[in-house]
Amino acid sequence: MDDVFDTIVVGASAAGLRCACRLKRLKPRWRVGVVEASDFFSYAACGLPYFLSGDIQHMDALRSTAWGSVRDSTFFERTKDLEMIAPARAVSIDAVGRRLEIERAGDRKWLRWKRLVIATGARPIVPQGISTGGRTFCFHDSSDARVLHELLSKGKLGTVVVAGAGAIGCELAEAFTALWGAEVVLVEAREWPLSGMVDAEIGAIVAAELRRNDVKLLCRAPLGRVEERKDGVFVEAGTEKIDADALVLALGVRPNVDLARRAGIEIGPCGGIKVDESMAASRDGIYAVGDCVEVIDAVSGRAAYMPLGSLANRQGRCLANVVAGREDSFGPVCGAAVVKVFDLQVASAGLTLERARAAGIETEKVWVNTHDHAHYYPGHEDVFVQLSWSARDGRITGLQAVGNTAVALIDKAALLIRQHATIREGGRLIEHAYAPPYAQALDPLEVAVAVARNMEEDGLRGISPLEPLEGRRLLDVRSKGEAESGPLEGAEHVEFEAVRQAAASLDSDGEILVVCERGTRSAEAARILLASGRRAVYL
After folding, report:
1. Pick from 146, 109, 140: which is nearest to 124 by CA?
2. DSSP assignment, residue 473?
3. CA separation (Å) from 481 to 36, 486, 496, 501?
4. Model confidence at 321: pLDDT above 90
5. Which of 310, 337, 483, 522 is deepest in the core (most CB within 10 A)?
6. By the 8 A CB rule, do 500 and 472 touch?
7. How far apart are CA 430 and CA 321, in angstroms?
8. Distance between CA 254 and CA 121 in Å, rounded?
9. How many CA atoms lie within 13 A of 384 on its CB side?
10. Backbone angles phi, psi at 16, to 5 degrees
11. Which tens digits make up the pLDDT trace of 470-502?
12. CA separation for the pair 113, 188 (Å, rounded)
């Protein structure tokens, strides 16, 4: 056999193996090799919190096919006709000579390639001065999950500090609490959980859900001193001092680009490998995919780092098509993401307010509180949506949602964002299926777009649900029963059905904040007041 590989892939995770398997299907005569440092690979890393929680009973389920075969080296060699070089560590790249140096069982050798794919993934963020080991853990790979699972099953983790209230941190809080009954202290440096994917309004809902499930959430509490103790760890976070059985770091990840950097491959402003739309890196014949690369944000047009399994799989397939000579490209993305937080489905796409401002984009926002299906059909549940758009040109910049249809809403919004649709175009482009048990006649995204247009075109403005009510002139348009069961201090009460008749008699001095349970009645009442010459906003 020729000792030159047509393609070598470094890294046997989602992007790397997706690329290798697809490429071998398209070019069955090619010699395709995969170099992987671990002997346990091709597992769904996003499922690790659910192994820890007990939702998934066996680790091998995370690397099994839908028909039950385990995706190990033998599977890929026999079924996919790949040459699996594992465990073996990629040491260096000779980009000019097109060689890859590997180390296996203490021996080093060079492999020759025509094309090289770097899929080295990401590595966990560990703050300077903190060492993992003992009772301080990262939660990044299968070995981390196994060790924690064993300690939990032996009853050795009664109190756990989780550092970082991002997606993994929130999932871990549930895992430790729901099955094992551990006391969880979730510490977060920012002002609310999931701050990288949602704004304060959605963050407040997530925080309430965590606390409702007995998670002690500490925000504005950056991780400080960590001291290992016998069978435990002492943690300082903000002003809090915590004695715990374990500290688990869930502070995010950084691109693993050491191999690429040593080879002189260009690294982008976000720390990932810079690639073009064909996933080609800066050196001839070298490509990169997955969590080690940067992408282009569809809203800002800037480089961004989005370590998402959905994008990694798409990149792997795209690159295989490109290398095989087929037309394909990986364009700008908007980071559509979803996370389970106990009984909440939390999803987002596009830019948060903070990221929009960093990109120089001034945005407007509206909030919609509605149901997942027709209100008259049994079992309906709440859906809360926040839509944002550019104040300059009306382009939709982001959607955030909480509720059991959140992921479906985000998937639709992602298409609008990637098409640079405006709020005016959004209503025209959205189409959804409707039947009372499954949906509303007006989709929540469609409602949010309509509310945004009401604000832009008619001046009908809602306020953030987090804004304080003190000092405002309040008009409560709920029913008499609602107002009596949950009175608003200092509010004037006029039932919604009587607002039109009462509008002329209301004092016209100052701005009126109209309030109801969900914003539907208050929005229409505010419109009536605006038409009568009053100044009104709604909540």
Report:
1. 140
2. E
3. 65, 9, 13, 20
4. yes
5. 522
6. no
7. 31
8. 9
9. 16
10. -65, -50
11. 989 999 999 999 999 999 999 999 999 999 999
12. 45
pLDDT, residue 504, reads 87
Q: Which tokens sit at 276?
A: 């073009």
pTM value > 0.90: yes
Residue 446 tokens read as 């469609």
Q: Where are the beta strands (DSSP E) in 86-157?
A: 89-94, 99-104, 107-113, 116-118, 122-124, 136-138
Structural domains for the chain: 4-43+55-122+254-323 (3.50.50.60), 136-251 (3.50.50.60), 343-458 (3.50.50.60), 473-538 (3.40.250.10)
Measured between alpha carbons, how far is residue 31 from residues 8, 75, 429 in Å?
A: 8, 17, 45
Q: Please, which residues have CB within 8 angstroms of residue 236's CB and are 6 or more apart in sequence?
A: 223, 224, 225, 226, 242
Q: Please, what's the b/e burial string for 392-413 (b: 16 or more CB within 10 A of its CB; e: otherwise)?
A: eebbbbbbbbbbebbbbbbebb
Tokens 């996003």 locate to 46
Alpha-carbon dihedral angle through residues 46, 49, 50, 52, given to the nearest 10 degrees: 140
Instruction: Show the tokens assigned to 145.
Output: 């999950």
Nearest one of 100, 74, 83 to 1, comparing CA atoms = 83
Please, which residues bridge with residue 338 across strands?
A: 347
pLDDT at 231: 87
